[in-house]
Design goal:
By secondary structure, the chain is α/β, with parallel strands linked by helices. The chain contains eleven helices and 20 strands. The protein has a ten-stranded mixed beta sheet with strand order 9-7-5-2-10-1-11-15-19-20, with helices on both faces. Strands 14, 16, 17 and 18 form a four-stranded mixed beta sheet that branches. Strands 3-4 form a two-stranded antiparallel sheet. Helix 3 packs across helix 4 and helix 5 packs across helix 6.
């Protein structure tokens, strides 16, 4: 049975975890394929709220094997804390598996991340300062430490000495910071983290292929989103990995012929965190409404997200880049009280009207909007398409027409059961 990918179509925080959790009930394996603990997702299950950072959403189902793939960068201290949190709340984490090829986030990565961001000043990128970028940089430089290195203390110390020979030069001579004590880092990771992490290592590629060969369903979930992708996002205001659907193959270890469903997740509006261009950004009372009603604050950082109207140009591009088969819309209910809603259908650049994403900088474009009527009705209890106000149906139909692929799942609240499936009903 081919695999399914869930990917964000905007700048993250679209609610991917919620729909991953919803889809997970049909899966036997759920894989996180890239990113680190800079990307949190919140799930509401039976009245309980779970804020996850590294552990895949499927952990909440007893029948699922949650996998952290080779493309993820892992801070073992964060992973252990998250496992302990879930265990304390009655969630069985014994099935969790991690690739030995996943790279470790080290304490100096976190320090370098914060120092680099501070050094950029007004040009800062808005990173979460959790060491993600420096960990991926060491991976690309081929001096990174991997999860499997925790099993060999001698090799771990040798590799640590190599990377610190350069890193300590940067810390002491560029940033005027103390050098990292290699033995202190080794003691923390080998003595405290290794006993907890090593039992989780497994043949993640083998598990995925075995499941697929047996006709079981596999779900691949990414962190961040299309426009935070290192290659396809609004560079340099991006993450350090490839959240797009193509990154799932590399980060999990399967080939493209094994994928037949790619679900893009989009909010009924747009938000982004940190710096970078944002054509439809709002700064008025509507912006405050979206933030307040949508609870638009980072799961990890608690930073206020920047809100704006739905950008169909962006999502059309995400459809192309990810080869999306469908789109799921979240937080439609956040628009309930608005008199009117807007959708960006094109960009104006000089005397040109662009319906596709330009290669030029996004901060040079002006959004062209179509305004639609609001529905002024609480839809949080709706479970069927026929129960939606006509204006809400019109909004979804308009978005679907603009992006060019079906909108199937629609979220109308934060809880697991607050959604409707448009393709299950006779329209």
């Amino acid at each position: 049975m081919p695999a399914t990918i869930v990917v964000g179509t905007q700048w993250g925080d679209e609610g991917k975890g919620r729909f991953t959790d919803l889809l997970a009930k049909e899966m036997s394996v759920v894989v996180r394929y890239q990113g680190g603990h800079n990307a949190g997702h919140t799930l509401v299950v039976d009245g309980q709220t779970f804020a996850l950072q590294l552990v895949p959403s499927g952990v909440l189902y007893d029948s699922i094997t949650p996998v952290i793939g080779n493309g993820v960068v892992v801070d073992p201290r964060v992973l252990i804390a998250e496992i302990d949190m879930l265990t304390a709340r009655g969630v069985d984490t014994s099935r969790l598996m991690i690739s030995g090829n996943a790279h470790l986030i080290m304490p100096y990565h976190t320090e370098l991340d914060a120092l680099h961001e501070r050094h950029l000043g007004d040009a800062k990128l808005g990173t979460t300062k959790r060491g993600i970028g420096p960990a991926y940089a060491d991976k690309a430089m081929r001096v990174g430490l991997r999860v499997q290195d925790l099993a060999d203390p001698k090799l771990f110390r040798q590799k640590l000495a190599v990377v610190l020979s350069h890193t300590n030069e940067v810390l002491t001579k560029v940033f005027d910071r103390p050098a990292v004590d290699a033995e202190a880092v080794a003691a923390e990771y080998l003595d405290e983290c290794a006993p907890r992490v090593l039992p989780l290592i497994g043949d993640t590629v083998g598990v995925l292929h075995d499941a697929l060969e047996m006709g079981e369903n596999v779900l691949l979930e990414g962190a961040q989103a299309t426009f935070l992708d290192l290659d396809h996002g609004t560079y340099p205001f991006v993450t350090s990995s490839n959240p797009v659907a193509g990154g799932a193959c590399v980060g999990a270890g399967i080939g493209p012929r094994q994928i037949n469903r790619v679900i893009g997740v989009a909010k009924a509006y747009v938000t982004r965190v940190g710096s970078g261009p944002f054509p439809t950004e709002l700064f008025d009372s509507t912006a405050d409404h979206l933030v307040d009603v949508g609870k638009e604050y980072g799961v990890n950082t608690r930073r206020r997200r920047r809100p704006g109207w739905f950008d169909a140009v962006m999502v059309r591009h995400a459809v192309r880049v990810n080869s999306l088969s469908e789109v799921a819309i979240t937080k439609l209910d956040v628009l309930d009280a608005l008199d009117a809603v807007r959708v960006c259908v094109a960009y104006q650049v000089g005397d040109q009207r662009l319906v596709n994403l330009p290669q030029s900088r996004l901060d040079t474009v002006q959004p062209i909007y179509v305004e639609l009527p609001g529905w002024k009705t609480d839809i949080s209890g709706v479970t069927k398409l026929g129960e939606l106000p006509a204006a809400a149906v019109e909004y979804l139909d308009f978005l679907e027409d603009q992006i060019g692929v079906p909108i199937r799942l629609v979220g109308v609240g934060a809880a697991r059961e607050q959604y409707l499936d448009r393709l299950e009903e006779d329209r």
